[in-house]
Structure formats: C-alpha cells, structure tokens
Design goal:
Radius of gyration: 20 Å
Order of helices and strands: EEEHEEHEEHHEHEHEEHEHEHEHE
CATH class of the largest domain: Alpha Beta
Strand content: 25-35%
Shape: globular
Number of helices: 10
CATH topology of the largest domain: Quinone Oxidoreductase, Chain A, domain 1
Structural class: alpha/beta
Distance between the termini: 6 Å
Largest sheet: 7 strands, mixed
CATH superfamily of the largest domain: Medium-chain alcohol dehydrogenases, catalytic domain
CATH architecture of the largest domain: Alpha-Beta Complex
Number of strands: 15
Length: 337
C-alpha cells in the first residue's frame, strides 16, 4: 500500500480512504513517515460517535498511538533529528499556562487538542507535528513494538503517581493492553507480590510471563487484600470497586480506565475510614513519556506479545470491528500504511 492513503472519519460511522499528501513541516515541526498506528478503544469511540463532546472534531484522520521515522524538519528544529526513529506525545499543549509550566501538560488550560482526535492523526502515510512532542528511540528499536508506547506512557503516568517502592505488595486490575503494561512497569520496581485480577483466566499465562506472582478472577471469593498499591486499568465502576477492596488501610489507588457516564462510584465512606489515597490518570505528561522510552530502551518493556493483528490501513473498518468484538484472541491491532 502506498504512503499516499489516509483514513478520514467524516462523521460517526462514516469513513473514506483518501489520497494523502504529506504536509511539509513548518517552523518547529517535523514530518514523520508512519510505521504503524495502533487501534484503541477511543478510536472506536470516534468511529461510533460516543466520544465525550469537545474531545473529537470531525472530519478527522484518527491515530494517536504510532511510531515512525523522521523524514524532514522545519526551521528551528535540529537537522540531526532527520532519519531518527521516534514516537510522539498526543496532547498539543500550549506550553505557557500554569499547568504546562508545572509539567502537567495533560491539564493544559488552553483547551483540549490531541493528535488523532482534534488534529490529524497517524492513520496515514505521514504525520506532521510539533517536533517538541517527539521522543527519540534507539537506532535499533523495533518500530512495531514502539507503536504501543502511547498506551504504555499512560500506564507509566499511573505507576509514577502510585509511587510504588521495592518490596511493596502491588496489584493490577484489568488484563488488557494497559493492564499488561502495568504489570511490566510494576515488576521493574521489584515488588514483594504482584497480583493480577481479570475477568477471564485466558490472560493468566501472559500475566505471569510479565512478572505476576498471582492471578485471580474478579469474582474469586477469596481475593487477597492488604496491598500497598493497586493500579486499575479496566475502565468499569465495578473494577474500581474491586481495586479499592484489595488495598490495605492507607493504600494507594490509581484509576486509569474511563467507565461509561453515570457509573456508580467508589464509596466515600470507605475511602475516608480506610484513608485510601486515590489518584487518576488521563493521558501522559512528558515525564511519563520519557520514563516509558527509557524503560523500553533498557529492555524492561516488551510490547510485542500484546500485538495480535497487523492489518493494512485499508482494513480500518474491519480493525475497529475486531477491536470491539470482545474476542479473547484479539489483542492490540496495528494498522500499517
């Protein structure tokens, strides 16, 4: 398939394959040849039309999880970036508000702008974006594996917020892509115990391969407790409750999943009486991206086992359908231009 094709979602349920002409990089920008773009639950939301208002702008080329190689740079960008393998942050932050100055770029007060949702994404032959958003990979990096570093960075943000220390008891609720990354990040911190809680047993072998010391299903009547840190990645109110129940008094909970609107929340009485510390993550700030790339380059993060499908960009509609099928054989789907 030539690089001259892009996916355009005109409106919910309507998409086209269109000729793609690379946009030459302006000052401060870089032009990246896309190697692969991941299909995420939020891409399904874009296609189905149930992404929250203000967090999508049609017509749109989706694709916020990607990897590629820099082809050209604009004025003010080091020429040495050309030819380098890269991944890139999605949030197009303003860099001048209070939150950006504090490093909390996902809370930018200038309003929400993100690659693949309000700005053109990577489901095309090339992507042009601010060069400051790029993170350079080692020359020998596997770009197929690197296409998963965006969800990994979101999990890195959660693990950094959790502040897990060596020897602590940690747990992960959820066994999708985010959950499997959480296991790997937490394993790298040398926990005493690393429990994974899922809905089905089919993820047990992979969980243990990534470092889990125990695996349970969420309806196990004998779920252990007393954990110092729990990272929730499943995106349901039920999962948040399960995660909180695993904690010791004073334990630390980080929520990364986004339940459907109107979901029942955590019990505030339980949070107060047990003095639980609850934090949340939406997207990844630069610190989490830098941490992810460092851990990936060190060989402590192995995304490839999570990839089950690599399809041509022309199979976009099929990929979205697969991603929502609930089939346990479907993991991360990559589209290749």
């Amino acid at each position: 398939m030539s690089a001259a094709t892009a996916v355009v979602v005109d409106a919910p349920g309507e998409h086209r394959l269109v000729p793609h002409t690379p946009r030459e990089p302006g000052p401060g920008e870089a032009l990246v040849a896309v190697h692969a773009a991941g299909v995420c639950g939020s891409d399904r939301e874009v296609y189905q039309g149930n992404r929250p208002e203000g967090y999508v702008r049609y017509p749109l080329t989706p694709g916020h999880e990607w990897s590629g190689t820099v082809q050209a740079v604009g004025a003010g960008v080091p020429a040495s970036l050309t030819g380098r393998k890269v991944v890139g942050e999605g949030f197009r932050n303003c860099q001048v508000c209070d939150r950006c100055h504090a490093g909390q770029t996902t809370l930018c007060t200038a309003g929400y702008e993100e690659t693949g949702f309000t700005q053109p994404g990577a489901m095309a032959g090339t992507l042009t974006l601010p060069a400051r958003l790029l993170h350079v990979l080692p020359d020998d990096a596997d770009l197929t594996a690197a296409a998963l570093l965006e969800p990994a960075a979101c999990v890195a943000a959660a693990v950094l917020k959790a502040g897990a220390r060596p020897g602590e008891r940690v747990a992960v609720v959820g066994t999708g892509t985010l959950g499997m990354f959480a296991v790997q990040f937490l394993k790298a911190l040398s926990p005493a115990d690393l429990l994974v809680v899922g809905t089905r047993r089919d993820r047990e072998a992979l969980s243990r391969r990534f470092g889990a010391t125990d695996f349970r299903t969420k309806d196990d009547p004998a779920l252990p407790g007393g954990f110092d840190v729990v990272v929730e990645t499943a995106g349901s109110a039920d999962a948040a409750g399960t995660a909180a129940a695993l904690l010791r008094r004073g334990g630390r909970l980080v929520l990364t999943g986004i339940p459907a609107p109107g979901a029942d929340g955590l019990d505030p009485t339980d949070l107060v009486v047990r003095q639980l510390e609850v934090q949340t993550v939406f997207g990844a700030p630069p610190e989490a991206w830098a941490h992810t790339v460092r851990v990936f380059a060190a060989g402590l993060l192995d995304p490839l086992p999570l990839v089950t499908h690599e399809l041509p960009l022309t199979d976009f509609a099929h990929a979205v359908e697969l991603a929502g099928s609930g089939d346990p054989e479907v993991g991360k789907i990559l589209l290749r231009p």
